[in-house]
Amino acid sequence: MKRCRAFQLETGQLIECVRSVCRGKKLVNKVSLGHPARCAAYSPDGEMVAIGMRNGEFIVLLVNSLKVWGKKRDRKSAIQDIRISPDNRFLAVGSQEHTVDFYDLTQGTTLNRIGYCKDIASFVIQMDFSADSRYIQVSTGAYKRQVHEVPLGKQITDPAVIEKITWATWTSILGDEVIGIWPRNADKADVNCACVTHAGLNIVTGDDFGLVKLFDFPCTEKFAKHKRYFGHSAHVTNIRFSHDDKFVVSTGGDDCRQRAALCCQKAKGMTFQLLGSCSCSQQRKLNSNSE
């Protein structure tokens, strides 16, 4: 892709050229992290953003100023996922070292580790906090979903307890609630990412074949009916609904693209209308021109 186009998310209207939009505008803020970033998460109150790095470090920034509030490196391998609990208290950091570390943000910028999850069989793929911030579910590279107490890290194995937990978010590709997202004859690695709407009615997935699929949630029957959408080459690496469930944004791997789609609620359920995409290589070129 040799051009980068911008779209108004609400209308899907094409803006002629990104540079024409940016001409005469000032870059509001930027920050150099020093190392490649792997994952990021905003606090529920919107005051902070936590970023996990490829070298095992994580950084917490203040959103308004992008000043570093705190940073820590307790692991040597890449941070795979990072989350802030719904009550804005706990920071969970999942790494390639088969660990999830917990930090209490209310204790200040020292970011001393107050607990960690034990007995994780492989590297962390996705994490989600419960609505009451007492539990966290962890999806691992062994394709096993585990539930742990926060912040002690004790694993919960009683199905009756797990069944009663209400999750604040759901990005896991594993579990009885999402068994229907896996296609027939699927290799364990075929589905890469998922996200449930804030309303809890639909789940969207991204897979190794460049497909974005939309299912009802929960999705408890194998090979569930779904709607599928094309737009990426191989490997959709991540996918998320916007805060109001109006849009879904997906990121590609080999194609280095971000795509945005408008979510339309109809009598027969939710559908997507592709709004546009942009190339990360073109974004880098634009960023270098603005410096």
Features of this protein?
single chain, 291 residues, mainly beta, Methylamine Dehydrogenase, Chain H, 2 domains, 4-stranded antiparallel beta sheet, disordered C terminus
What does this structure look like?
This protein is mainly beta and 291 residues long. The protein has 2 domains: 31-168, YVTN repeat-like/Quinoprotein amine dehydrogenase (Methylamine Dehydrogenase, Chain H), CATH 2.130.10; 170-291, YVTN repeat-like/Quinoprotein amine dehydrogenase (Methylamine Dehydrogenase, Chain H), CATH 2.130.10.10. The protein contains 3 helices and 22 strands. The chain has helices at 18-22, 159-163, 280-290, and strands spanning 6-7, 14-15, 37-42, 48-53, 58-62, 68-72, 79-84, 90-95, 100-104, 113-116, 124-129, 135-140, 145-149, 155-156, 191-196, 202-207, 212-216, 227-229, 236-241, 247-252, 257-266, 269-279. A 4-stranded antiparallel sheet has the order 3-4-5-6, with no helix packed on it. Strands 7-8-9-10 form a 4-stranded antiparallel sheet, with no helix packed on it. Strands 11-12-13-14 form a 4-stranded antiparallel sheet. A hairpin with a 4-residue loop joins strand 16 and strand 17. The radius of gyration is 19 Å and the shape is globular. Mean pLDDT is 85; it is low at 1-7, 14-22 and 282-291. GO terms for molecular function: microtubule binding. Pfam families: Beta-prop_EML_2 (PF23414). Keywords: Repeat, WD repeat.
